[in-house]
Amino acid sequence: MLEKESCVGSLWRLKTYNRLQLHLPKETCKLPHMPFPPEVPAYPTKKQFISYLEAYAKHFAIEPMFRQEVQSAIYDARMGFWRVQANESEFLCRWFIVATGENAEPVLPNIEGISDFKGSLIHTSRYKDGAAFEGQKVLVVGCGNSGMEISLDLCNNDAQVSLAVRDKLHILPREILGRSTFCISTWLLNWFPVKLVDRFLLVCSQVILGDTHKMGIRRPKIGPLEQKKSTGKTPVLDVGAFSKIKSGQNQGGLRCSKIYSQRRRVCGWTSREF
Predict the structure, then answer these.
(1) d(C-alpha 157, C-alpha 124), whole Å
(2) Fewer CB under 10 Å: which end of the chain, C or N?
(3) Which H or E run contains 208?
């Protein structure tokens, strides 16, 4: 097993923000043959999930070769083996499995005028917490699960947050009547068609969250599960950011600026704006 970073679970350890928790229950995220410890809550924190990965590797004696980045992999038909070049070493193997994930490399869009911006510009993979942004104006570009949760973290640290939303998207409550929305969905799909389950989820979302359209966030014409199936786009599971968007007032003793959501693409940047 080759790993280009220096540790197990490098994406979680090195490229995630501090307040991150699993958005799905631990029962659905466990690895084979080893559940989470019973004392771990339903939605493990970043630290708890990293500890679980480390304990899993230790229990099953999984010992990756760290700091080994694969440069090439070529199948040698004459030998019937793969020739894999990593750093200064070559590995020969009959079977070659690529398990690099889908979020390993950060993508920064080329926004016109961004080079003239004098403030701080960071990708979510480098964001840790909102303490350093107290009292500052911050624009979060993107309204996926990471963008929503980082916006919430910034609000809770008294930043003045704006949220730019390019496209239509689905926001769902993380739980319905105390049960995971994801688990309810997968259970219902055993009995009902996708469109009917989607209709149920949207009714529940309307009751629990309210009308997202009034806040400038429009929903797609197709339902959240159908969209996930057809495009791969995951719905946002709300953990508190949407209530900040709706209120913009003090909540729980925290001063929170409203997150302004605008359904437009960020095409240009003027340094006077932020």
Answers:
(1) 17
(2) N
(3) helix 194-209
